[in-house]
ABC transporter permease (Ollibium composti), 314 residues
Amino acid sequence: MTDAIRVKEEQPGVLSRILRSDLFYSFRRSPITVISAAVTLVLILAALFAPWIAPHDPFDPASLDIMNSLLPPQWTADGQAGFLLGTDDQGRDVLSTILYGMRISLAVGFASVVLAMALGVTLGLIAGYVGGITDTIIMRVADVQLTFPAILTALLIDGVARALAGPQAYEEIVFFVLVLSIGLSFWVQYARTVRGSVLVEANKEYVLAARLIGLRSSAIMFRHVLPNVVGPVLVIATINLALAIITEATLSFLGVGVPPTQPSLGTLIRIGNDYLFSGEWWVTIFPGITLAILALAVNLLGDWLRDALNPKLR
């Protein structure tokens, strides 16, 4: 009894195991990765706490004054106190719109990645484990999907949703349409990667043993095979998060994203682009810089995770 208690006390906790892991060692040995993680965390926290840290509420019409439209940044000669990064054409504080806009961009990005991952991983598991005609159908659909660029697929889905819902109803469901259109554009990478990993894992001893004791195919796929292929999925998800944010910004810049009344970073860039050549550069430059920094930081994290989880590079 005493020995059992002593062994239990000597077992390291979860935090201790994380700090001693090879993954954390690789993380802290890379200054670029640490900086990227810090920048990503700061931007995410700034977006989450935007209602409390933003100087103004850009979505409250009662607080807007059209006389404050297109004010330059505060540090310039014509700047006005209270508007650090200037204002846009509606008199909204640019810093506040960036903070609120990041919330929409990040929400669309995370939701679309979760949708693409759930769909792609499920279809990849089924294709690799079941095989036969099921595998052929899923992979041929994936091949057809790959012939269309992701932005074109998203535009097609968005156009169909706009035509079916109508202008007024579309504005109410535009967030979910963006998530659906971007998510359906990225599922193929997960499916192909998981299928290849499952084909390798399906012939290993633990899968054969699970079949021998009579476990159902669904239990074998999701409880035994899936944990062994989750590494590549996490890498794809991290990189796809940046791609999803950029895709959402592209759709919004093209005018098929969220409405200007609740803009994302892409919508802010599109609005500012109309005033760029008339001298009001701050309306589009600052949202563009924020989008570039966010995408770069997430991409660098994805690159590090890919290398850290690759046993050949250890």
